[in-house]
Design goal:
- The chain is built from 18 helices and 27 strands.
- It is an alpha+beta fold.
- It has a 20-stranded antiparallel β-sheet, sandwiched between helices. The chain has a five-stranded mixed β-sheet with strand order 1-7-6-3-4, with no helix packed on it.
- A hairpin with a 5-residue loop joins β9 and β10 (187-193).
- α3 crosses α4, α4 (144-153) packs across α5 (155-164) and α5 (155-164) packs across α6.
Length: 614
């Protein structure tokens, strides 16, 4: 029995000695560095490598991305760009690999870098493939010099411009650039994905200083406080692969500036920081302390993104104030540029049907008007909404001014109410160009490039008497000579405006205006069908607000006449050449198209701008 006890004691003693050895100095030397498993991380976001265990050895970490190695048992590293990298733990002063891991670095989406409570956000999802076509489009529209000046005046965008010029790259082409606003802050925050944070900081500071700003303070973590001319502050700081610039709105001159100066003076006397500086510092803390997906998974944004296709640049906005109280929830839009064409598509989300689900008749004029207008506008919305558009919303200042003006023109209160409710909800305007009349006036008339052509306008009416009364009183108030021709089914008012004949026809259910040259030479056609075939199957139909301006057609009609009655043949080519030179000075817009229509849960809008070919 004693032998058995002694043997057990010896076994326990041996076990105790082995345990001590395992947790003692010998065990610390045996702890291996930990590179971790293969993983995927976002560019610019710090990632940890190594062991935090007591006694973990200090090694040399090579991250495989061209950055200097780090020494330590546990280190943190942010990969500056996307790619696949092998991270190795090496023996200090040796190339022996103790551990390794493959790290796949993906771009950090710009929406993850924007706080989730941002009220408005305008952003490029990534620079590569998005900025170049838009810059080219704007350069063709405004001119290269104007576009360059506009970019250079925006500090973060100036880095993008430098990148496009092929200068040393500090911008991350796989990440984005954007602007956003935050609740409680009157101003804008800009952000830009970068690969070399120190170089990007220095470049932006240099740009700001060249614009008159001065550095007031630099923080150890990289933040830079600046003052603009006049004392307005700026804050520049980095965070996880993005550079942020906080730009408060400047105070309006007058009382606001006086109040602000007094606040700053009082705070200085009491030792407090200026309110603007404190606000900007709180914004920096919110952004650098942000975790999670940022704005990328905001439910409203996720819902809206499914309604609209992809684009080069996107806009998100939450509804505020009157819009929110009226049931509007938010807006999402995408602008896509393809060569000389830019298409905008967007969606307005609403808690209730827009226009209360009501509609209005389509345009009768579009179905029988002469072919070939260079501009067209059609509005088909409920009558009360059209009255808001034309006269102002009930209770608004514009509606009050309209009512006072009508009362001043001799209308009774009841007549004013009758006039405001006379519209049926459908309006149509067509514009035609008359090249022959233009050249006759240019060569033999005023000798100025004055427009010549025809305007056709039609509005549906539910009451014609107040409209006829209003037109008559307006002409009389302006002392405009006019002729009244009463017929069995309509009354016509004939006058002249800018030396052009104008005829207004008021029938039981519509008001029609014909102004300018005769359209007898143009064959009638279904203008609406032609517009729908050209632009969109639903555009220019009931329930839509649609518009089109075809500058290309205008140019073609100006260039078409080979002879004009009453104009010497030798003078016409000179006039055409001169007019062409004048047109070349204008922005090279070929076409503009707009359309909006309510749909279930909101409303969809589209726009297109086509530039003239080089």
């Amino acid at each position: 029995m004693k032998l058995h006890v002694r043997a057990s004691l010896r076994a326990l003693t041996a076990f105790f000695l082995v345990a001590v050895a395992l947790v003692g100095p010998g065990c610390r030397r045996a702890v291996k560095p930990e590179a971790g498993e293969d993983r995927t991380v976002e560019a610019g976001v710090p990632e940890g490598f190594g062991s935090e265990a007591k006694g973990a050895p200090e090694v040399r970490w090579d991250f495989g991305d061209g950055t200097p190695p780090q020494l330590g048992a546990r280190v943190s590293h942010a990969f500056p760009r996307a790619g696949t990298f092998t991270v190795r733990a090496l023996k200090e002063n040796k190339d022996e690999v103790l551990a390794s891991a493959t790290v796949t670095v993906v771009p950090r989406p710009v929406l993850r870098a924007i706080p989730p409570d941002a009220e408005v956000a305008l952003f490029f999802p990534q620079l590569r493939g998005n900025v170049e076509p838009l810059v080219d489009f704007v350069s063709r529209l405004l001119g290269e010099a104007q576009t360059r000046r506009s970019l250079e005046e925006a500090p973060l965008l100036s880095l993008v411009l430098s990148d496009l010029r092929g200068q040393p790259r500090v911008v991350d082409p796989e990440e984005g650039v954007g602007f956003f606003s935050l609740p409680g802050f009157e101003g804008t925050v800009a952000l830009l994905g970068v690969t070399d944070t120190p170089a990007a900081l220095d470049a932006v500071v240099k740009e700001l200083e060249s614009g008159g700003a001065r550095v007031s303070r630099r923080e150890p973590e990289g933040s830079v406080h600046l003052q603009r001319e006049g004392g307005a502050p700026l804050l520049l700081f980095p965070d996880r692969g993005y550079l942020y610039l906080v730009v408060p709105d400047t105070a309006e001159p007058g009382g606001t500036e006086t109040v602000r100066a007094q606040v700053v003076k009082t705070q200085a006397q009491t030792g407090g920081a200026p309110a603007d500086a404190a606000t900007m510092e709180s914004i920096r803390a919110r952004i650098t302390g942000m975790s999670g997906p940022g704005m990328s998974e905001v439910p409203l944004l996720t819902e809206l993104r499914s309604k609209v296709g992809a684009g080069n640049v996107h806009l998100f906005a939450r509804a505020e104030g009157e819009e929110a109280s009226s049931g509007i929830r938010g807006l999402w839009a995408a602008l896509k540029v393809d060569g000389s064409r830019a298409d905008l598509e967007g969606w307005v989300a609403s808690e209730q049907s827009l226009f209360e689900g009501k509609s209005a008749p389509g345009s009768e004029l579009l179905g029988k008007a002469p072919a070939g207008p260079f501009a067209a506008l059609m509005v088909s919305i409920p009558p009360e909404e059209l009255a808001k558009l034309v006269f102002g919303a009930p209770g608004s200042e514009r509606r009050a001014r309209t009512q006072q003006r009508l009362l001043g023109e001799g209308f009774e209160a009841a007549e004013v109410d009758s006039l405001l409710g006379a519209l049926r909800g459908d309006l149509t305007l067509l514009a035609y160009f008359d090249a022959a009349a233009f050249y006759r006036n240019f060569i033999r008339g005023s000798r100025r490039p004055e427009p010549r052509g025809t305007l056709l306008f039609q509005a549906g009416l539910v009451r014609s008497e107040p409209v006829l009364d209003w037109l008559t009183k307006r002409l009389q108030a302006r002392k405009q000579p006019f002729e009244v021709i009463k017929g069995a089914d309509a009354t016509r008012l004939r006058t002249r405006v800018m030396e052009q004949p104008v005829e207004l026809t008021v029938s039981a259910d519509r008001l029609t205006m014909h102004g300018g040259e005769s359209l007898a030479a143009r064959a009638p056609g279904d203008v609406g069908a032609a517009l729908r075939e050209r632009f969109d199957a639903q555009a220019f139909t009931p329930g839509h607000l649609s518009a089109m301006v075809d500058v290309g057609r205008l140019r073609a009609e100006l260039d078409a006449p080979q002879e004009v009655p009453g104009v010497p043949s030798q003078q016409l080519p000179v006039a055409r050449s001169l007019v062409g030179t004048l047109l070349d000075q204008l922005p090279p817009i070929e076409l503009v198209f707009l359309d909006f229509a309510p749909e279930q849960g909101g409303g969809r809008f589209r726009a297109r701008t086509q530039l003239r070919s080089r």
